[in-house]
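Moderator note: this is an archived Q&A kept for reference. The question asked for a predicted structure of one protein chain; the sequence and the answer are reproduced below.
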Amino acid sequence: MPYETILFEIREAVACITLNRPEKLNAFTARMHEELHAAVDEVRGNGALRALLITGSGRGFCAGQDLNERAMSGDPDGPDVGNALEKSYNPLVHGLRELGLPVICAVNGVAAGAGCNFALTADIVIAARSASFIEVFSRIGLIPDAGGTYALPRLVGAARAMAMSLLAEPVSGEQAASWGLIWKCVDDDKLMSEAHALAQRLAGGPTRAYGLIKQALNASPANTLEQQLALEAKLQRQAGKTADFREGVQAFLQKRTPVYQGR
């Protein structure tokens, strides 16, 4: 698929997706969703890739859904927003969470509405100091979607999740980091260099183990202790049979830096 609303490039073992509608603060459209799904499928199907970095072009990360597109739906009763979630947003969230390699998001400016929750789908979020996270939905009579009601209370607790959702006030990059909403906040001019360095670092690590770590942590909130212990044993059994585990042990015993192949 030719990409019109995103940029997609591969640097060594790292894939980079850049939302690319800067004149609209990279707001989501149906076309962008098609391209994002295609890009994630391309990453999933490329066995040489070992990390995915997502960012936005221009002065913002993503302003959420492009409401101009929804306003043109032609339905006198209003658009079926739930249908849009089921067909576009929800599969995208699932696709990123289930991707068997690390996903890093570099938030360069405002991340609002679905754009905020899309960013929080990543495994590691790093933000510029000028970035802001806004659960803007209540301003137009909607609820947080794209996984927001799932991620927020788990990341920042019930009280902050509720206030963010009801008040729709911006949370700065520094505040987001102090709350545990994101991993790290950095100076604007260092955002992309740090994000790329992080992606390259993860791309050089034990990719199979990273995928299993994601699987274990994503399952944890719904599991009892007994279920989680059983899952750990199952996944650790798989990790113990990888070439990267053998390499890690040998490197430790030989007092050298391991060279992981992602196998």
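Archived answer notes: The domain at 207-253 is CATH 1.10.12.10 (Lyase 2-enoyl-coa Hydratase; Chain  A, domain 2).
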